[in-house]
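Researcher: Re-running this chain for the archive, since the previous output was lost when a drive failed. Same request as before.
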Amino acid sequence: MGFPTTRLRRTRRTEALRRFVRETRLSVESFVYPLFVVPGEGVRQEVGSMPGVFNLSVDEAVKECREVAALNIPAVILFGIPESKDELARGAYDENGIIQRAVRALKDAVPELLVITDVCLCEYTSHGHCGKVEGGQIVNDPTLELLAKTALSHTRAGADIVAPSDMMDGRVAAIRQALDAHGFTNTSILSYAAKYASAFYGPFREAAQSAPQFGDRRSHQMDPANVREALREVALDVEEGADIVMVKPALPYLDVIRAVREEFNLPVGAYQVSGEYACLQAAGRLGWLDLERTMMETLTAIKRAGADIILTYFAKAAARKLAC
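Model: Regenerated structure tokens:
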């Protein structure tokens, strides 16, 4: 039946009706809150390009995570800035490194909170790249050993989930083998399976002090033009033992999220990255956009595209909005 019998506006008439027939529902249980952990005590330094996001010492990260847990956000993901850096990223797999200390403190203080650790070397290398460098090139296979050592040290400290973000070939298998060989068969791997060489990472590199000292990361991160390749990357990571796969960034790659969701029957994550957050914050502060509405609209779009899990710097603000 057509108009006037069919009137789609009937169920849009009030907020109660709109909520009643809503197809995609955001939930705080979907959120993961990223945290940047730095050396020192009492450190809470705002990231210039990311208003409301801070570099936190371990004691301040504990305070932050108590607030996160109180908002019913189920998980955080930790990024570490070490005391010193070197060519072999020794701070990444140091048993008393910044992330290892933070994990122990968080699991002691807020045991119900899931702690995910980013497994990459770029924050820890003096050259700022995601792997070992030989002859000016990032070498794949020698990097796998360092990544596996890093994931193992995070797990020994108490991490619930390790999340390799380096995009080296074979890293999920290397990490899975190392964890299993040391009895950590129940530790989950969240793989950054389709991570693109994106211009939206700039503010993160300020926060994590991880800008490359030469070249760029296009030799290992994906070409933004490719979708079929993303499905190959995800398939390989699933075959190697990934428990959860992720697309990064989120908003410019909603089609990739949808394609992964339709192709694979396992949890799919998406990372609303620093540049996405910074764009919305800047437009909101200038009065060009309603920040709260655009925050919720973008998160809903990511969920609608097929993401089960959303890593977002808006997690606390969105949790408060959903609780209203």
